[in-house]
Automatic annotation (TrEMBL):
Residues 380-607 form the Histidine kinase domain. It comes from Desulfonema ishimotonii. Residues 627-742 form the Response regulatory domain. CDD domains: HAMP, HisKA, PAS, REC. It is found in: Membrane. Signal peptide: none annotated. GO terms for cellular component: membrane. One of its GO terms (molecular function) is phosphorelay sensor kinase activity. This is histidine kinase. It catalyses: ATP + protein L-histidine = ADP + protein N-phospho-L-histidine. Keywords: ATP-binding, Kinase, Membrane, Nucleotide-binding, Phosphoprotein, Transferase, Transmembrane, Transmembrane helix, Two-component regulatory system. The keyword rRNA-binding does not apply. The chain crosses the membrane at residues 15-39, 164-185.
C-alpha cells in the first residue's frame, strides 16, 4: 500500500482539504449539539420553574384553606405539558397535600421526602436537578413572605433527547453534504496549486530526459509558486549558459588543430582529442589504452617519474619533440606541457602541434636564403665577368668584319669568339640563378621551345654522347601560349633533356610531353601548385632515378654528378628552378631509385597570340647616320659600342659618366643615348636619363647593363627608353636596338 506521503500532490491536496473540512465540520457540529443540549436543558428547567411558580401561586389559597380539591384541579392543568410525569404540592411540614401523575390520575398518598428532590436541599427552598433521566424542579409557595408549601414537578427527558437526536441527524446530513461539496470543490480548486507544481515537475522530467536546457516552465501566477518557477527558469538559463561554454570548450578542444593529451600520474592517457588520433593514426580507444612512452621515444617507463616531477615543478613549459605514429614513422611536434590539478587528481596536459610543414618550410627558407646568397655572389661575379668578356665576345666580331675570307687568323679568332660566347652563356646562367629580373614579356609556346631544341647543335651533341638513348615527343597541338623569356625557357628545356639523358648511362627513353591543365584545387607535391590554368611541360626518363639525399640538393647551385667537360657546371637544374620561379610557375617531381624520374613544370598560360618571328638578320638594314652618345663608366665598353655603331655609319660620341652626359647634351643635342645602367662613382643610368628629360623631354635612349633587367631598368623604360640591351654587346643586339628606337615614333 502506498503511504500517504508518497501519494501525488493532487491527491494530497484534495485529501488535506477534505480532512480539514471534515474536522472543522465535526467540531462545529459537536459544539452546536453540546450548546443546544445545554440550552435545551436550561430552557426546560426555566419552563418548569415558571410552571411551578404559577402552580404554587394558584395553590396558595388551597393550602391556606386546606382545599385539596382545588389544589388537585390546579395540578391537573399540567396534563397539557406531555413531558411532565408528575406534579405534587407539599405542605410546609413536608406532607403531600395534592398531586398529579401522568400515568395514573389521582392523589399521591406516599409521603415524599423533599430533601431527596435536590441534592444538598436544606429545607423549603427553590431547586432543580437532572437525575436518572428525569428533571426534578421544586419551588416554594410563599404567602406574605411566609413559606406555606412546596411545589414539586417531575419531567421526562425523552422530548429533549429526541430533539437532540434530530439536531444530530440534521448536523450529520449538513456535514455529509458539506464534505461532498468540499471534496468536489477542492478537487477542482486544487489545480490552482497542483497545476503549476505538476507542470514544473513535467518540465524537470523533460529537461532531465533530453538534456535540453532551453526548455522553460510556464508561469501561472505571481505568488510564491510563480517565484519558484522563476527561480527554476533562472537556474535553467544559468545551466544553459554554462553548458554552452562547456560545449564550446569541449568542441574547441576536440576540433583543435593541436593534439591534446591528458596524462595521469602513471603515464597513461586519460583523455585525447580528435587531432591526437588523426596525426598519430590511432583510434581513441587505442590511445586511451596506451602510455606516453608508447608515442614519445625520449620518454620511457624508467624516466617517466622524472618527467612527471619536472612538469610538476615547472608547471608549464614548451619544447620540441618527435612522436611515433602507428606506422612507426616519427613526426616533429612542438609541445606545451601544463601540470594541472582537477577534482583532487593530478594530470599533465600536453598540447602537441604537428610542425612537419613548418620544418619543411624552414628547410625551404634556408635553401632559398642559401640560393639567394649564392645568387647575390654570382650576380656580382657575373657583372664583373661581363665587363671582362666584352672584349672577348665583341672584338672578334669587329675584327672579322674587316678580315679577308682567306685570312689565316680567321679560324683562331672564331674560336676565341666561340669561347667567349660560352663563357657569356655561363654568366647568363649565373644571372638567371641570381634571379635578377628575367624579362617574361614575350609570348611564347612551349612546343616551339621543344622543337627548336631538337633542331639545335646542342641536341646533336647530346645524341653523340648518349647513342643508346631514345627521344620521344608528344606535344599537344592546342597547347596554350605563355608569357616568358625564350632564351631562358630554351635553356630550361635543354637542361631537363640533358639531365634525363645523363640519368641513363646504359640507355633508355626520354619522353617529352606538353599539355594544357586546369587545376581546380591545390596540388601538393614538390611544390604546391595553386589553382589556375597551366601549360605543363613533362620530361620523363627510364633511368636510375634520384635518391632522397640527391633530391634535396638537386636545385642547389654547382651540385652535379655529371661528367665534367660535357655539361657539368652544376648550374643546369639551378637555372631550371630560377627560370621557373621567374615565370611564376611550379614544379613537381616523381622519382624512385631504379624506376626513372619525371619532371612536371607548370607555367601560367596567356590568351595572347604569338608574334611573328623575325627574318634572318641582315646587317645592311640597320645602318644609319644619326648622332649617338654612348655613356658608360668602363672604357672598353664605350669603345666596343662606339666602334660597332661607327661601323654602321652612325656619328658616335662617348662620355664616362652621367654627369658628363648631362653637360654634353646641354651644349650639343643627340638623336639617341646608349646608357649604361650601373656607373660608379656618380649617378646611374636612370638618374642620368631623368635629368636629361628635364632638358630634352622627347630624348630617345636605350639602356645597357651586365645585369638582368631590374626595377630601375623597368623605370627607365617606363619613362621613355626604347629597349634594354644585355652586355656583352653583340653587333646584332646593339644595332637592332638602336635602329628600332630611332625609327620608333615618339
Amino acid at each position: 500500500m502506498i503511504k500517504f506521503k508518497d501519494k501525488s500532490i493532487k491527491y494530497k491536496l484534495t485529501a488535506i482539504i477534505t480532512m480539514t473540512s471534515t474536522i472543522a465540520l465535526l467540531f462545529a457540529s459537536s459544539a452546536f449539539l453540546i450548546a443546544e443540549f445545554a440550552l435545551s436543558r436550561r430552557s426546560m428547567e426555566k419552563e418548569l420553574s415558571i410552571l411551578a411558580e404559577v402552580i404554587g401561586t394558584n395553590c396558595s389559597a388551597a393550602l391556606l384553606f386546606d382545599d385539596r380539591d382545588s389544589a388537585v384541579e390546579t395540578l391537573s392543568a399540567v396534563k397539557a405539558v406531555p413531558h411532565i410525569i408528575s406534579a405534587t404540592v407539599y405542605k410546609k411540614d413536608g406532607r403531600p397535600f395534592a398531586g398529579y401523575n401522568a400515568v395514573r390520575t389521582g392523589h399521591t398518598i406516599a409521603r415524599v421526602d423533599l430533601r431527596s428532590v435536590e441534592p444538598g436541599y436544606r429545607g423549603p427552598e427553590n431547586g432543580y436537578r437532572f437525575y436518572n433521566g428525569y428533571l426534578d424542579v421544586c419551588r416554594e409557595i410563599v404567602l406574605d413572605s411566609e413559606i406555606i408549601g412546596v411545589v414539586h414537578l417531575k419531567s421526562g427527558l425523552k422530548e429533549l433527547y429526541a430533539r437532540l437526536m434530530w439536531h444530530g441527524i440534521f448536523c450529520g446530513i449538513i456535514t455529509s453534504v458539506s464534505l461532498i461539496l468540499a471534496y468536489f470543490i477542492s478537487s477542482r480548486l486544487q489545480g490552482m496549486f497542483s497545476k503549476p507544481i505538476l507542470h514544473l515537475a513535467r518540465t524537470m522530467g523533460e529537461v532531465s530526459a533530453v538534456r535540453d536546457y532551453t526548455l522553460r516552465a510556464n508561469k501561472f501566477c505571481d505568488d510564491e509558486l510563480g517565484d519558484l518557477i522563476d527561480g527554476f527558469n533562472d537556474m535553467l538559463e544559468q545551466i544553459r549558459q554554462r553548458d554552452e561554454k562547456l560545449k564550446l570548450t569541449q568542441f574547441s578542444i576536440e576540433h583543435s588543430g593541436d593534439a591534446a593529451f591528458w596524462i595521469s600520474r602513471g603515464g597513461r592517457f586519460f583523455y585525447v582529442n580528435n587531432e591526437a588520433c588523426s596525426y598519430l593514426g590511432y583510434s581513441c580507444e587505442e590511445l586511451l589504452a596506451m602510455r606516453m612512452a608508447d608515442i614519445d621515444p625520449e620518454i620511457t617507463e624508467k624516466n617517466w617519474p622524472v618527467f612527471w616531477e619536472t612538469s610538476k615543478q615547472r608547471k608549464s613549459h614548451t619544447a620540441e619533440a618527435r612522436h611515433r605514429r602507428k606506422d612507426n614513422s616519427l613526426v616533429p611536434v612542438e609541445i606545451a606541457n601544463n601540470f594541472l590539478e582537477f577534482q583532487g587528481n593530478e594530470y599533465v596536459c600536453v598540447f602537441a602541434r604537428n610542425i612537419e610543414d613548418r620544418k619543411r618550410m624552414e628547410a625551404q627558407l634556408q635553401k632559398a636564403e642559401k640560393m639567394e646568397a649564392i645568387g647575390t655572389l654570382a650576380a656580382g661575379v657575373a657583372h664583373d665577368l661581363n665587363n671582362i668578356l666584352s672584349g672577348v665576345v665583341s672584338y672578334p666580331e669587329l675584327l672579322l668584319m674587316d678580315m679577308p675570307e682567306d685570312s689565316i687568323f680567321k679560324e683562331p679568332i672564331l674560336k676565341i669568339q666561340k669561347s667567349g660566347q660560352k663563357a657569356a652563356a655561363i654568366v647568363q646562367d649565373m644571372l638567371t640563378l641570381a634571379r635578377r629580373g628575367v624579362a617574361i614579356a614575350d609570348i611564347v609556346n612551349l612546343n616551339d621551345m621543344v622543337s627548336d631544341y631538337f633542331r639545335s647543335t646542342e641536341y646533336e651533341k647530346l645524341k653523340s654522347f648518349h647513342p643508346k638513348v631514345r627521344f620521344k615527343t608528344d606535344l599537344a597541338e592546342d597547347l596554350l601560349n605563355i608569357s616568358g623569356s625564350p632564351v631562358h625557357l630554351s635553356k630550361t628545356v635543354m637542361n631537363l633533356i640533358s639531365n634525363a639523358a645523363e640519368a641513363m648511362p646504359a640507355g633508355g627513353e626520354v619522353s617529352i610531353r606538353t599539355a594544357n591543365r586546369y587545376v581546380d584545387h591545390p596540388i601538393s607535391g614538390y611544390d604546391t601548385v595553386s589553382e589556375g590554368e597551366y601549360a605543363v611541360l613533362n620530361v620523363a626518363d627510364t633511368g636510375i632515378g634520384i635518391s632522397v639525399d640527391d633530391l634535396e640538393k638537386i636545385f642547389e647551385p654547382f651540385y652535379t654528378k655529371k661528367v665534367m667537360g660535357r655539361s657539368g657546371t652544376g648550374l643546369g637544374m639551378s637555372v631550371v628552378w630560377a627560370t621557373l620561379k621567374d615565370h611564376r610557375g611550379y614544379i613537381d617531381i616523381h622519382t624512385a631509385e631504379g624506376a626513372g624520374t619525371q619532371f612536371a613544370l607548370y607555367f601560367p598560360v596567356t590568351r595572347q597570340a604569338l608574334e611573328k618571328r623575325e627574318a634572318r638578320f641582315v646587317l645592311e638594314r640597320f645602318t644609319g647616320c644619326e648622332k649617338i652618345l654612348v655613356v658608360d663608366d668602363v672604357r672598353v665598353q664605350r669603345e666596343i659600342a662606339s666602334r660597332m655603331l661607327i661601323k654602321m655609319g652612325y656619328d658616335v660620341r662617348s662620355v664616362p659618366s652621367g654627369e658628363m652626359a648631362i653637360e654634353y647634351v646641354k651644349e650639343a643635342p643627340v638623336d639617341l643615348l646608349v646608357l649604361d645602367m650601373i656607373m660608379e662613382p656618380g649617378i646611374d643610368g636612370l638618374a642620368t636619363y631623368r635629368r636629361i628629360l628635364d632638358i630634352w623631354p622627347r630624348q630617345k635612349a636605350i639602356i645597357a647593363s651586365g645585369f638582368s633587367e631590374t626595377d630601375r631598368v623597368r623605370e627607365a623604360l617606363r619613362l621613355g627608353a626604347g629597349a634594354y640591351v644585355k652586355k656583352p654587346y653583340t653587333l646584332e643586339n646593339i644595332v637592332k636596338a638602336v635602329r628600332y628606337e630611332l625609327d620608333r615614333q615618339a
